[in-house]
Amino acid sequence: MSQSVEQKVRNIAAIDLGSNSFHMVVAKVVGQDLQMVSRHKQRVRLASGLDSEMNLSDAAIERGLLCLVMFAERLQGFEGDNVRIVATHALRQANNAPVFIQRAREVLPFPIEIISGEEEARLIYLGVAHTQVESDSKLVVDIGGGSTEMIIGQGFEVDLLNSQQMGCVSFTNQFFNNGKLSKNNFAKATLAAEQRLKPLVKQYRKKGWSTAFGSSGTIKAIKEVLIGFGYHDGLITHKRLQELIDALCTFDSIDAIELSGLSKERKPVFAAGVVILNALFQAFQIIEMHFSDGALREGVLYEMEARFARSDIRMRTTENLANKHNVELNHAVCVKHQATELFSQIRQTLGIKKHSELLSLLQWAALLHEVGLNISLPGFHRHSAYILQHTNMPGFNSEQQLVLATLARFQCKSLKLNEMPEFNLFDKNHLLALIKILRLAIILNGQRNDQLLPEILLTVEGKLWVLDCVNQLWLEDNKSLYADLLAEQERWLSAGWQLKF
To answer: Which of 68, 134, 405, 498 lies in the 20 to 30 Å Cα band around 381?
Structure first.
């Protein structure tokens, strides 16, 4: 009995590379339970290291790497599939983010995913939903160093989300960079926040919510200072925020702030965080807000467990996108099945692991390769690529979307591989193999009829890819397909590839 229970225990960890702080939460999965083991936080101030050209300074990179070295010590012995690292606004904005990621892999041997603001919002909501008492509907607000996320949902499902590029670090640099705390500075910062929120007000008020929650460091600091004011229930209200702003204005500078409950590390960006939250209260007419311990890293952690249980939001995202763009699903499914079969035949030869995420990405790309047809037939592959790269796709990080877009871009026509982007999480040779597989699967299903394809075998002999059919007369009876394969063979040759059939 003890051995069977022990086999069900798995250690997992989620890391959030935020604009102001890096966070790590470690948990163990025992049966169906997720038990938190430890939390780790380090103030890194990554966003403050962005220069005017949006490059991270060497000092900011070093601060981040030093933190990751400490995280790595805690994660010794963890398997790769049990650690997920997500990066948010600062690394989304940084032009030299690949430099940081490459150096980070040297000290922390796990992939780093840069996620979109919308994906960050969804995961934040998931973290709050899993750690709070159930309510009819929730508004969740998270004010980070570089962005602010606002989400409305019910249960574990998001109904409305948005990410705005305003955070406690960026607003400090913009409105309090001289360190002065004046009513004029507060007024300018408040006006700027209200202008960012104005386009969202109508839909958020119309949607409504029953309970409002705030997550992460900014709102936690505000709650703790309000408790120091004597508000022991920990609730945040508009009146109390106004009182807090009045108190801040009594100090001449940020360095002079002395408030019970406010840590030394949070002090430099505290005023900007208060301004943003106050603007949100005014714009959305929030009555009161509770603090939630759950945030982005908890959302990542719970979704890791959900994915192991095969409850993958990415499949739902794919289906919704296909329906939205009127994809011919019968054909897309045929391409998906053919691509899956070809992948399985050569996976080992290509050195791809059995449970690699590459197969899932190939399957999703097959289902969505024609989303651009809804725009126009000429150049539809480029339309498809644009949609897949720039559409909000819950569950996918930025690089996963880039993989889907790349597969769609190179699904047909000439192979201009000089246009292929760089990747951090995936091996380029593996992605080139996926491009070949998808192109072949599309060609083999080019007739778009109900006729079943015969058994087709794919082998790889060095640089040579060989397609073979059990029915030797099949190509003679399908002259159009034969012509398509001949044309494809020529395209492969122009790219330095070899195809034989």
So the answer is: 498
Residues 342-382 have pLDDT tens digits of 999 999 999 998 778 899 999 999 999 999 998 988 899 99
Assigned superfamily of 2-115: ATPase, nucleotide binding domain (3.30.420.40)
Residue tagged 């030093």 (tokens): 66
CATH class of 312-453: mainly alpha
Four-CA torsion 330, 335, 337, 342, nearest 10 degrees: 170
Question: Using CA atoms in the order 89, 94, 97, 99, what is the torsion angle rounded to 10 degrees?
Answer: -150
Q: CA 472, CA 484: separation in Å to the nearest integer?
A: 17
pLDDT (tens digit per residue) in 60-113: 999 999 999 999 999 999 988 899 999 999 999 999 999 999 999 999 999 999
Q: In Å, what is the CA distance from 278 to each residue of 84, 248, 271, 275, 443?
A: 33, 13, 11, 5, 57
Residue extent(s) of CATH 3.30.420.150 domains in the chain = 118-299
Tell me the three state secondary structure of residue 249: coil
| Number of H-type helices and E-type strands within the chain | 19, 14
State pTM to two decimals. Answer: 0.75
